[in-house]
Amino acid sequence: MKFIHAADLHLDSPLRGLARYEEAPVDELRIATREAFNNLVELAIEEKVSFVLLAGDLYDGTWQDFSTAIFLAKKLGELGREGIRVFGVLGNHDAQSKLTKELEKPKNLTLFPAGKATTEILEELEVAIHGQSFDQQHVVDNLAEGFPMARPGLFNIGLLHTSLDGREGHANYAPCKLDDLRAKDYHYWALGHVHAHEKVLTDPWVVFPGCLQGRHARETGPKGCCVVTVEDGQVESVDHRALDVIRWARSEVDLSQVNSLEGVLDRAGKAMRELLDDADDRIVATRLLFVGATKVHGELQAKTQWLRQKLMQLAAELNADQLWIEKVVIATTSKLDRVAVLSGDGALGGLAKSIMEISENQGGVRGLDIALSMLRDKLPPEVFVAEDGLKIDDEIVVARLIHEAKELLVGKLLESESES
Q1: pLDDT at 396
Q2: One GO MF term, please (predicted)?
Q3: Is the pLDDT at 191 greater than 90, yes or no?
């Protein structure tokens, strides 16, 4: 027996923050979640699976485009014509969605109700599926505790949308502990909510398949579903299959041995070629992060726009249709002997030390609060509310900006000294 375990479809998830990127593949990004789900349907038919499990967040919050639900019904209908049933629970985003409340569900889709965990028995397969949906967005109760004990003689599956014992970047919804899951004696727990693939446990199997399609720069790497093979009532294999059509990536480019801007472009080109090789003909949306102590640190800080333009040109030459640079981050440091300068008694050393001693706490920089307030008044609101916007109310972000400003100033001083 085979079945597919998927979660967090977020069909037609609205794209935020892309308007400021003129070169972004917006059209491809808009349909990416649909294309990924279409890939799932094709995989289910190709693998001749017995059923598909959807562990929550089919839709995306308050999104009310009924064509989304029509698309889902059409694709589930394709599975139905192949005799493939689909079992799902509603997650926190579905609980917000008007679509889940007003449209009839496809005949081959069984959605577990909210309120209490219930069980579906597939007698011909000797399988019991236990599940419970969210009835509202913010579910803070431990739903796993209310799941029934395993049915003897059957292969038991738990279908649950949960943060488990907490995962970075995800709200703490329906929290539970692994001991709560073990106590039910199920063979497989099909979880959703966490967008990164994770095999949490193998006895019993506790699995997050991750989302089908990454939606922004923080959701990097292959995204897809799990194909689960069961033999003689036991899990034989859990294989993650990539279904995404756009691959988000974060590539660190080490410049510690680079002494020229030409060398920077050479290293960046190598990194981009590796991304394309690993993407299997998908579109790659990458964030390039330049790191390391390098003699070109000052030049990079002074020529950020030039660097991005050169990198965009290089990406176009490599594959204009498949590679998009989402962002360029310069996190290098100067390779000049800053220790000697900072320990010296000269004017340059004194000035550099004064800069480095500046507090990276927002309240420790005189006039910074006023400057940030003026910045907020002058810039458009979308700069601050976008997915990857400027979070000037976040103490960690402000501390990082202060640190980067100090590094830039000291780097410029050291650069000027080396040229004199």
Answers
A1: 76
A2: exonuclease activity
A3: yes
